[in-house]
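### Sample
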Amino acid sequence: PWGFWLLCVASAPARGDSGGKARSCAEVRQLYGAKGFSLSGVPQAEISGEHLRICPQGYTCCTSEMEENFANKSQSEFEAMMKEAGRSVQATLTAQHRSFDSYFQDLLNKSEKALYDAFPSIYGELYTQNVKVFKDLYSELRRYYRSSNINLEEALNEFWTRLLERLFKLLNPQYHITDEYLDCMVKHAEQHKPFGEVPRELKVKATRAFIAARSYAQGFLVGSDVVRKVSQVSLSHECTRAIMKLMYCPHCRGMSSVRPCNNYCLNVVKGCLANQADLNTEWKYLMDSLIGVADRIDGPYNVDTVIGTIHVRIAEAISNLQENKDSITSKVFQGCGNPKISTKGSSSEDKKRRGKVALEAKSSAQALEMLVLDAKGNLTALKTYWITLPSSLCSKKVMASSASDDKCWNGMTKGSYLPQVMGDGLANQINNPEVEVDITKPDMTIRQQIMQLKIMTNRLGNANIGNDVDFQDTSDDMSGSGSGDSCPDDVCGKRLSKSPSTRQPETNAIPKQSGHGVNGASSRSLPSASLLLLLPVAGIAAQHLWR
């Protein structure tokens, strides 16, 4: 078949359809001028093409300078096409992030405002003297959501500890309660459950909801950033020549009206974007993982209810403490002894005010449902972006002819294009007839972005099952590694300011297991963190060896 194709090319008329008559170069001159180049030295009619280095060396309307200028122009135009296509994807992902972020922040803000509006009238000085405790809680929740290195479980435990200390003193003003006495009280807090089951329930639900929300928001930003960086990768020298031959050589041959053959265009673009196509697997995993977490956010993790009712749960906890004050105080005295009587005397009745919890939280579940539905539609559409990019560019930008067209530009002349279309990815370009691709030299920038996709997908997989991968337990049993309900009672019940957790914050930590699909599967493993740090060094060393 190859010999037959070459024979067809060799037997094609050297001067296109006009046979031996030299054709006018008016169309090329017009195009060349429109591209911003000077028409000085541009032939009026076809000349011999022995000087050409990229286009076929038949009769031509292009000089060596024109060929070089067209080559540079084709490179810049193709790279612009890539960036434009990337910007469209970036815009989609950024818009999804902005919508969810706005919704989530608004949910948290409304809960905080409802607390500030209602608590003064319900609890009096029990609230007004402890405003900072509540403000600090919401501040920590926001910091966690914005990806600060905060252990969310510890932040919640610390809030309940501080609140208990403050309220216990206010509810028992007739006693002189020292810090040492408070330490003792806190040690027994888990046993006495002064706030009822609210702290435990809120910790489990809020932790899962925040982990999912944070990972979900991060996933959109990581995806957008990967597209941005990959879109900036420059074309190789071989690719530039192939793009020039595809886009401008027909003009030099006096065939300006002849469009490139579709399969010819596909082979050129697949060869040029071979490394980009290798993003496909991890990119699909990221899209699937985002869809999986989206289902959790609008489903089992119930973000709308959990985050939107934090103030209501806190009110329930305080009311439980007030209603059981005498019983709890008696138990504390039994365990820690009777504190000394205070010389300051009793406080006003305002401090002892018992609140009647009648707080309501307006549901925005419908808004969340619409956000998730829109996101899932966009994510599904973006799954095959990297492997459909060549056909998209060929049909919409290069304006290739139909696949069955036998009067298209095939790289040599007007006719049909016989070679088969190559597969996707670097390994499949070993026999690409249009672009010389060294499959042993992957682009390091793109390999690094593949690793970023793996890391983010891993985070989402863990978020899908309630695990926070930004904190890893230093022990071997992974207990307390982030799951909302895996913290042992004898650890979570302690006063955290006195006995900090052994877990250390770890940026971009990689868990021992990962997950891709919507079910939070965790069968794929990732390299260790130290390997990630060595990746750029390995890339430089490899590039040196390739030279």
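The chain has a mean pLDDT of 82. This sample (Glypican-1) is used throughout the tutorial notebook.
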